[in-house]
Amino acid sequence: MLFNKATLFSLCASIASAKKIFIDNDGLTALQVLFPLAAGHEIVGISGSFGSVSLVDAVGQGYDVLENYNLSSCIPHYAGAAFPLIRTADTFYIWEQLYGELVWQGGWDPQYEDSYTWANFTYNDTTSGAVALINAVRENKDTDPVYIYAAGMMTTVAQAISIYPNLTQEAAGLYIMGGMIDFNYAQATTDKSINVDIQTDINLIQDPEAAQIVLAADWKESIVGGNVTNYVLPSQDLYDEIIERAGSYETIENTDYLSPVLSLISTGNFTENNEQETLPFWDEVVSAYMSYPEILEQSFDAACAVDTSFNSPYYGNLRLFNKKINVPKSGYKSGNCTLASVVDQEKFFDLLVDILFKDWRGYCETGAATTLVL
């Protein structure tokens, strides 16, 4: 069996100090919200932004997560950036013609169709995601500074910095999903398109200018997901553990509350679908070690920048420099960052299963989850 339950109890006994967190993403999933709540942190806002999906779909997916877990009354919900700072669909396609098409094009896929309309859901439409982020940081800067988690493109955070440059010093720090390095060999030597996709840093590539603004900024702390997020994958052991916890696959199918769980086990190995659907737990891994820092077992410090030269095959890719030896004095502006390199996968999976089988629907009233009765 994959899971050692003793590690879960040990981990929960050492929950980190509470944090306030603002999440911006281009496709929110349940665990990105539930990991912080399970660790005792407060989510002061979420925003959905264009990237892997369209803006309306990003906001719609966030709405579904909050509604499923009855969290809408205590987690504010906003619409973030509708498009990148400079890059357009046309320039995106031109760059692909010059340097090779990306396997995953997200919201710019020519065949992309929205899954939602704005009439399908509600959110706070009086304030943009960038302004909401600024307000959250300013309101808490003197008492309990906010951590920012950017799990999609960096556009919304870059917008906030351009409006309010003090953001980087008044926030507690930044966590991002993205920042993969040294994957050119892996891309060139595989015979499967899914492997090229997994080794492609779409969060930075879709808006390189925003990524450079954010990563080169003067944060108190900047934690980059990097390569480690590619190594934590769903498996048949995980699916079997989830089904055993539920009692049966049919229980998951027939329980509306478990729809996020059904979405998880209905892809990849369990139903023998196309391997294209078996993707790593990218955003969830960063959310987990942001919430439970002890999961992050190894990391290293560097100077970070993003290639913003359009006439470059590495446009939108992370560049690293040794902080003591070769940080550029001109040309590239860089910022200090910490790259995650090893996470405790056993603890991650233990938490994942436990969290998904708690009842969060009373959280906004009580501040806690209860045992889920099936």
TrEMBL record:
**Single GO cellular component annotation?**
cytosol
Q: Name one GO biological process term.
A: purine nucleoside catabolic process
Annotated Pfam families? IU_nuc_hydro (PF01156)
- Spell out the molecular function terms from Gene Ontology: purine nucleosidase activity
User: Which keywords describe this protein according to UniProt?
Assistant: Glycosidase, Hydrolase, Signal
In the UniProt record, the signal sequence range is 1-18
Q: Where is the Inosine/uridine-preferring nucleoside hydrolase domain?
A: 21-350
Family of this protein: Belongs to the IUNH family.
Q: What is this protein called?
A: Inosine/uridine-preferring nucleoside hydrolase domain-containing protein
